[in-house]
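hiii so um. not sure if this is the right channel but i have a protein structure encoded as tokens and i wanna go backwards to a sequence. like what aa goes where. can anyone help
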């Protein structure tokens, strides 16, 4: 609602806006492309327009949460960490929405003088995540097995061969604040750990902590946790390494 955004910004007249609002699940965007594009692009547009119309360009700085998903297929063209200069080649509707939102914010910065900075977030983990995120879903399924609520006790997963740059939000939160406060206007930077983790290895680290996991020794024990690849969890396009 552009009018509610305008009224709220006019009432608060903030010094900083941390714009994280979005349909933020990459996998869900394949099923809901229209909602993803509409929500993410228009919410950014309404916020930028509010700052412009209210004449707050010299008072309010906007931190637009970008995403590593804007790189997409470009990640396969680099032997090592992908730089900010890499071409945007998103492979999901979510990645497209984040690329479009970022380009829109930079256009408002150039054409209207808005003060905008963009950290491109790689994967960041925090407690209380939702099951749309793989590692949170793995933990959820393990917990269900341990409580006897998943019958049969099978943890279903998608492609485990991928590697991802993952950061604990405890480490990245202060960086986000610092970047927002001191980075030159128009800055776009990658925000991650610069370390890639194998999803298969992370899943193994998780299940070995559970008393329900016996590995190959489980045999036909119907009460022991087992792993199974679920074809429905495979993405239409899944970058092998995002770093």
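sure thing!! here u go:
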């Amino acid at each position: 609602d552009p009018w509610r955004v305008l009224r709220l910004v006019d009432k608060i007249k903030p010094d900083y806006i941390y714009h994280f609002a979005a349909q933020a699940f990459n996998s869900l965007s394949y099923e809901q492309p229209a909602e993803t594009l509409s929500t993410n692009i228009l919410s950014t547009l309404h916020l930028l327009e509010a700052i412009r119309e209210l004449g707050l360009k010299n008072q309010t700085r906007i931190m637009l949460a970008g995403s590593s998903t804007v790189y997409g297929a470009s990640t396969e063209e680099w032997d090592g960490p992908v730089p900010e200069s890499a071409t945007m080649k998103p492979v999901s509707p979510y990645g497209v929405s984040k690329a479009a939102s970022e380009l829109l914010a930079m256009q408002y910065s150039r054409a209207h003088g808005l003060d905008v900075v963009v950290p491109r977030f790689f994967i960041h983990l925090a407690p209380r995540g939702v099951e749309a995120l793989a590692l949170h879903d793995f933990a959820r399924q393990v917990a269900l097995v341990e409580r006897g609520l998943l019958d049969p006790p099978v943890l279903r997963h998608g492609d485990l061969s991928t590697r991802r740059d993952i950061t604990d939000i405890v480490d990245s939160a202060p960086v986000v604040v610092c970047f927002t406060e001191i980075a030159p206007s128009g800055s776009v930077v990658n925000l991650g750990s610069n370390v890639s983790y194998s999803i298969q290895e992370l899943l193994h680290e998780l299940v070995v902590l559970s008393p329900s996991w016996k590995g190959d020794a489980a045999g036909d024990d119907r009460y022991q946790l087992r792993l199974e690849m679920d074809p429905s969890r495979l993405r239409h396009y899944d970058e092998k390494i995002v770093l």
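oh and The radius of gyration is 20 Å.
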